[in-house]
Each structure stands twice: as structure tokens, then as C-alpha cells.
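We were asked to recover a plausible sequence for a given structure. The inputs and outputs are reproduced exactly as logged, with field labels preserved.

PROBLEM: sequence recovery
POSITIONS: 89
GIVEN STRUCTURE:
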């Protein structure tokens, strides 16, 4: 399934359901963006327009450079949190 990247709005990002549908695994084609995993709650938060997407794109890129993948979720305080995880096979 293709969609707009949740972080940089580039069309053509590939989206795969993961974690029993609780997360989406995104592969963004834009230079400077990349691969990340995001929870449904975090997607909703981004659609509402609160979080700083530019910072998140930067974190995604840095994680990818270290061959990690950024996992974006909502913390218990309601703010977005990011965790670097190992790439999933
Ligand atoms: Zn992107």
C-alpha cells in the first residue's frame, strides 16, 4: 500500500502493517527521510498537527544512518516518544 509519508508528506511511501495492526512500518522514498515504525496513536497525533515533523524526519534519518529504525509512539504523558530499534527482517 502506498501513501503520503506521515512525516514529510512525500507521496509514494510504502506502508506495511506490523505489530498486529497497532503499528505501521513506513518506507519513505524521500532523500533525507527513511524507514520508520509508527503507532496508530502517533499517526493520529501527527494528523492533529502538534509534533515537530522536521525534528522527527531528522531522527529517522540519523537512526537509519546507524542502521537502526526509529519507532515513534505516544508516551504515557501524551507526547510523542521515539525509540531506536533494530531493523526488522
Ligand atoms: Zn518521509
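RECOVERED SEQUENCE:
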Amino acid at each position: 500500500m502506498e501513501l503520503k509519508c506521515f512525516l514529510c508528506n512525500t507521496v509514494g511511501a510504502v506502508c506495511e502493517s506490523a505489530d498486529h495492526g497497532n503499528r505501521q512500518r513506513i518506507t519513505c522514498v524521500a532523500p533525507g527521510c527513511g524507514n520508520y515504525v509508527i503507532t496508530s496513536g502517533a499517526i493520529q497525533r501527527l494528523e492533529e498537527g502538534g509534533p515537530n515533523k522536521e525534528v522527527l524526519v531528522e531522527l529517522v534519518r540519523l537512526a537509519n544512518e546507524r542502521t537502526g529504525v526509529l519507532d515513534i509512539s505516544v508516551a504515557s504523558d501524551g507526547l510523542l516518544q521515539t525509540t531506536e530499534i533494530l531493523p526488522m527482517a
